[in-house]
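User: I've been going back and forth on whether these two constructs are worth ordering. Before I decide, could you fold them both?

Assistant: Sure. I'll take them in the order you sent them. The first construct and its structure tokens:
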Amino acid sequence: MPSAFLPPHQPVQIVLPDSTAIPLVCDSPHSGTDYPADFGYAVPLADLRKSEDTHVQWLWNAVPTVGGTLVHATFPRSYIDVNRHERDIDLTMLADAWPGEVAPSERCITLGNGLVFSQTTARSPIYARRLTASEVAHRIESYWRPYRHALAHLLAGAAVRGPRWHLNLHSMPSNAYERLGRVAPGPLADVVLGDLNGSSCSAIFTEMVGRAFRSRGYTVAINDPYAGQDLLREFGDPARGHESLQIELNRALYLNEQTRELLPRAQDLRDDIAGVLQDIAAHIRGVTNSHA
């Protein structure tokens, strides 16, 4: 694959198309596993790792093969979550005054999953101290902002000649409903597509991606239990032809959720995703050719 245009130690890795480029940008914001030295967490690393979308960028490695660009974070979401708004801050985490505005989300308050996580997925406090405002500001400036700027730049470039497509890539724990404090209406789907309840992506594209997974034997749900977060709100605008779709994969399909090691069947899922990407690329070429 082509080299990323940022060096390996940077917070964002970008893999450019290795075939004729199409206006497709895929990003994995939560699969980073490089834990910064200044994190200062006070829980076992294994507990923190349960919030990772471990190996998601590996599962989607065929993105450049079909002409898309693959973006992924190198740092963990528990350090700072690039899929949260920069004002999604819990002031009770801080030892001193925050200089800007804050607007903590419900998940930030109830689950401790805001811009900077305060709790593990098991609801244990991550820190035995309060963070300073300068620590949080450093994480925003050195990690959150470079990732968001890189993704925005790539999506703007993809849309120069018309519509563009954005896949926001994730994995979900097999006990997702329990983790969210919800009663499961039935078994968790293999794949959950989130389009912010129709506001970040056209129904046509959401349905097309759903068919691509179903045709390969996977169960698919729409917006249940995840409809999407801030990256879809930022970049999805189907009225302008800006399609942003979140894709959640059930971790039980490919991952030992305790050890974070790949299961033997992970390669089958990876191969199926490569096929889904071929279907998506064909759809995109069909749409872009009609606009030519």
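The second construct, handled the same way:
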Amino acid sequence: MDFNLKPQERKFVEEVRAFLDAQAERPDAAEVMAPDRDAHSQLANSPERRAFNRRMAEQGYIGMSWPKEFGGQEIEGIYEYLLNEELALRGMPLIGKGVGCIGKTIIRHGSEAMKAEFLPKILAADIEFALGYSEPSSGSDLASLRLKAVRDGDEWVLNGQKVWTTSAHFADWYWVAARTDPDAPKHKGISVFLIPMDHPGLTVRETKTMGDHRTNEVFFDNVRVPADRLVGEENKGWTYVCEALDFERFTFYTVNPLLRKFERAVEALRTTNREGRPLSEDPVIRRDVARLATDLETAKMLQRRVVNEASKGRVPAVEAAMYKVFSTRLGQQLTDFVLDALGPTGLLRHGAQGAVDNGVWEHFYQTTPLDTIGGGTSEVQKNIIARRGLGLPLN
């Protein structure tokens, strides 16, 4: 693999940076830029964020790798990767699960009517999605989900519960995995549905987590769904869920924020003194910084393997799992290292007097564990690597 950017790719990055520079000058920029607050721009909703997404669509940045017949530009996936890296670096909303995991799965498996209804809205950034996978009894073991979907004439009736549904409180549509054949092996009896979030049978209840991150429980009470809201084929949903999660990991887990955190860590160590000397002069700290720098280069190479697979039209399942489990753990290790080095001052929160880098490291300490859960836990990623990458048998 040649990881050097081609001239046209470098030109694209320059164009994106110019576009984002212009966005940063807008009076509403603070509502869509959150470089100091992990994941804020993805998890919070506001009219300004939606307006920014529409400006992205008008710029032609949404769905660039989609086939032309569906409104895309049919260019290599590397351009979506480059765009997301620039967005992530500034804490701006990424191109999102609508374009990646949902849009691409509809293109591969959705009916013609579903493509006609949803793909143009995704490209125009007119709709937001929530993913309904995890349940109280099936977090890491997604295939054991119990949300029941029963066919009743021209409709499906869904009853049960989902948990950890980020975006459910503001999304327009719910991408939901449900069990449609309770007698089939657990990986075989699952189907995927698209349900409007304003359905009267849905109840959304907030769950607060660390790092000011809101997620939700969603309850289904006789939610009746027209049969044409079934995605693809009945009982083939496990395949669609796996593909969608692979696309999500590719879309969301960028490397630039990790590199930026490293730069901030070095600056914090350089400007913090202990016994009259900067922490950056301590030989033990310098050794650990060198190790982290090496691990960052590994993370970059793993992410570019994901891009390489996606750019060839393949689903980067194993590559995405390897990158996610490595990079999210590295984010925790980097934060832990900085807090250990800073000592008590590292625990001062945002806005506290004397807080290093305005308390950002205390915030990172709360948010980095969440990265190891979203899009599939680290345990799930290891299983993917073991089964699909190494060919090891199931338990």
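Notes on the second construct follow. The longest strand covers residues 214-226. The CA atoms of residues 125 and 318 lie 29 Å apart.
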